[in-house]
Amino acid sequence: MWESILDWTLHGSVWVAMSSLILLGLIGMVVPFLPGHLLVFGAAFIPFFSLDDGGGVSIWGLVILGIGLILAQGFEFLSGAMGSRWFGGTKWGAFGAFVGGLIGLFFMPFGLLLGPLIGAFGCEWLMASKTVKPATVSGVGSVLGTLAGLMMNILTGVAMVVVIVVDIFWL
Fold first, then answer.
1. Distance CA 112, CA 150 (A)
2. Which of 3, 8, 160, 171 is the most exposed, fewest CB within 10 Å of its CB?
3. pLDDT tens digits for 101-159?
4. Are 80 and 105 in contact (CB under 8 A)?
5. What DSSP character marks residue 52?
6. Buried b (16+ CB within 10 A) or exposed e, 132-169
7. pTM above 0.90, yes or no
């Protein structure tokens, strides 16, 4: 009797911890300074290492989640630079958007959008010798790229949660 109670308690605590990390991870996909994708990725390891059968989480599920984590980080760091380039910016504009995005992380939440905008505009104007209008277009492109990257991050995070649920309950 005590073994079944202990087993039930262990399983329950594992699922509560995993669900809490997933929920916190989903919140972290839109809240700055909270590593949402990493929390969702870490949530899959709780049943994998805590339960005898891995809690239904497979190695392939963990690999797919790892790929999702890498993709999400790529979207996050490169989206502003790619948006700047897409709107006709030079390599200087892409570089400025990237550096501005990194610096903007320290001035949340407005720095998320203003950092790439100011970085792309400043580098286009000062380093690439563009006039104000093309430099502004490049800066706006970096903001739109950052917003597209944010949307891709959210979609990637939701897909990661779906992978966990499918891996545990259907595979």
1. 10
2. 3
3. 888 878 877 887 888 888 888 888 888 777 778 888 888 888 888 888 888 989 999 99
4. no
5. T
6. eebbbbbbbbbbbbbebbbebbbebbeebbebbeebbe
7. no
